[in-house]
Specification:
about 250 residues, disordered N terminus, six-stranded mixed sheet, Restriction Endonuclease, Required for respiratory growth protein 7, mitochondrial, mitochondrion, alpha/beta
């Protein structure tokens, strides 16, 4: 059985000093493994590091750990997501605190408590959201409904308590792929009663089967190109400013 250990809450004042230099990590991985650069294992691992960089740099996620391997049940990365810094910057621009948000709403048979209310109550003291990420480094094929059904099953097996109810701590599942969702895939993720976000992240391309980059040129590759919240995640994150943050490229 896979046990996922999420690190405890750390004051957001310390975050900037704790954020790793993912470009340096990626370059080190490429250099140490260039002999196997055409293998699927190399490309999959490189993609996982790319996703970690984007989650950290663009969405301000912290404590990211790569855990993929035998028995991982499809989870490649776990971490925490402090959304208050995003909300704090977007609220003055979009007046998010003025939006009327219900304390509880029902989506696909499950009750959801929007986090915006908690942000208003706790501000910077609100604990980060635990996140679990699955990476699908497909170059050509789209993510299928089968892939998504397996991910939903993983959420249920990992995060439901013995009574069948989910843990109180908000846990959001991310699926990351360089490809678009199919129409059936979109319909499926909107029909499930778990918070699921699909993140389309480009792969870092090889140059004639070689990866010849430095930190400057690497920064131009492997970006987030699409962010899609299913209905459950959309209600959970309603008026938190995440979409506005990405649309404005406020992370730059």
């Amino acid at each position: 059985m896979l046990t996922l250990y999420f690190k405890p809450f750390i004051s957001r004042r310390l975050y900037s000093s704790l954020s790793p230099n993912y470009n340096a990590i990626i370059l080190k991985f490429i250099e140490e493994n260039k002999a196997t650069s055409t293998s699927t294992v190399f490309q999959g691992t490189l993609y996982e590091y790319t996703v970690m960089r984007e989650l950290s740099n663009k969405l301000l996620m912290k404590d990211l750990n790569k855990i993929g391997g035998a028995g991982d049940k499809g989870i490649d990365i776990v971490g925490s997501w402090p959304i208050y810094p995003i909300y704090e910057k977007m609220n003055p621009i979009f007046k998010l605190s003025e939006d009327k948000i219900l304390k509880r709403t029902k989506i696909n048979g499950a009750f959801v408590k929007p986090l915006r209310n908690k942000l208003e109550e706790e501000n910077a003291n609100m604990k980060p959201i635990n996140i679990a990420v699955q990476c699908k480094a497909f170059r050509t094929s789209k993510v299928s409904p089968r892939d998504l059904r397996e991910l939903v099953g993983t959420y249920t097996s990992l995060f439901a308590n013995p009574s069948g109810k989910y843990n109180k701590a908000p846990i959001i599942i991310f699926m990351c792929s360089p490809n678009l969702l199919t129409k059936d895939g979109i319909n499926l993720i909107n029909s499930v009663s778990i918070p699921l976000i699909y993140l389309r992240v480009n792969m870092i391309p090889s140059l004639g089967n070689q990866y010849i980059y430095n930190e400057t040129t690497l920064q131009e590759q492997g970006h987030i190109v699409n962010y899609y919240e299913n209905l459950h995640a959309s209600k959970l994150l309603q008026s938190c400013g995440i979409k506005e943050w990405l649309n404005l490229r406020a992370y730059d």
